Amino acid sequence: MRFFFLFILTLMILSCNNTDNNEISKETKILNIYATDIFLNEDFYDNIVPLFTDIFKCEISITKFPNALTMLERAILEKDSTDVDLLFGIDNTLLFMAEQDSLFIPYESNNINDIPDDLIFDKEYHINPVCYSNIAFNYNSYVISDPPITFGEMQDGKFKDQMILMDPRTSSVGRAMLFWSVVAFGRNGYGHFWRSIKDNVFDIYDNHNDAYNAYLAGEAPMIVGMETTPIYHIQHDNVDKFKSTIPQEGGFKFIQGVGILRSSEQKYLTRKFVDFLLSVEFQEMIPSELWMKPVNKKVKLSVDYEILQQISKDYTHDLSTRETRWQYDEWIAKWKKIMLK
Predict the structure, then answer these.
(1) What number is the average pLDDT over the span 234-258?
(2) How, if at all, do strands 253-261 and 127-140 pair?
(3) What is the DSSP string of 230-298?
(4) Which of 37, 199, 242, 323 is 20–30 Å from 47 (CA)?
């Protein structure tokens, strides 16, 4: 079965960009990749890398980072001297920063037509989307039987000290939550929302792993995260007590992507790797490896995914990268003053 998968994937990838086929013989077949740690699955890279290296008879060296911001900051710092070819795990909350330093070359993947427009967060294709999930409030249904279904209910005193958050200065999920609040409540109203939920916050963590471990340990029964995370516990642990809720006012998508660094000398392999990540064959592995949604619309999700809550309004694209670049420091400063005072 694995041989058949590799054979089909080889034909599919090599059939694209035929004009590039002569390039690979002129280049060193080594890809250096900066990548984020993947939520809930430490074996992800070990499972996918051989699928690509077996086809192209190349080597891949991966340097992992605890979060996308740290990875991006390293790439910016090293941009004039790096031998890194790709960044995998750059998300839509960091596009405003990634664009500033002209780190990436545009590449419109051969599989881009299989990706819905609302998931393409970089219309110039410096970053191609790979997987996504709506941001949600995950909760332990054994503790919370009546979860909040609106932003207003989340401010209710009955949820005092029950919510775990992540710091938007260090966490992409925390940053997505901040952006979500800005577009949902407006530039003048989001501060009121944070003040209203402050007493309901148990603690604020620097990163997702520490926050989620506290959640699993029962320190607090609700956490800001991804709507798809409870499916991990259903399929991996056979536990269905963890649920997710998205406010009725609307949702915000967290989208992870991949970008080719301008400094890369491995243009053929990098393009093929992007095509590989967006292929149906790879995308079919995302729900059971990353516990997120694939961006390729040809992939059919299992019933567990199909029953996820439908959002009434999508706020994801309501912030332009220009506005975010101008206002980000102000948003962070206000959040810090309210939440860390």
Answers:
(1) 95
(2) antiparallel
(3) HHHHHHHS----EEEE--TT-B-EEEEEEEEETT-S-HHHHHHHHHHHHSHHHHTTHHHHTSSEES-TT
(4) 242
Sign of CA dihedral 235, 171, 137, 323: negative
pLDDT of the residue at 9: 52
As a whole number, the mean pLDDT across the chain is 90
Q: What's 302's DSSP letter?
A: P
Rounded Cα distance between 291 and 140, Å, is 18
**What percent of the chain shows pLDDT beyond 90?**
79
Cβ within 8 Å of residue 112, ≥6 positions away: 120, 125, 128, 278
Contact yes or no for 272/150 (Cβ under 8 A):
no
Cα separation, 296 vs 331, whole angstroms: 33
Contact 93, 87 (CB under 8 A): no
- Using a cut of 0.70, tell me whether the model's pTM lies above it: yes
**Of 70, 65, 72, nearest in space to 37 by CA:** 65
β-sheet bridge partners, residue 163: 201, 222
Q: What is the C-alpha separation between 172 and 205, in angstroms, rounded? A: 12
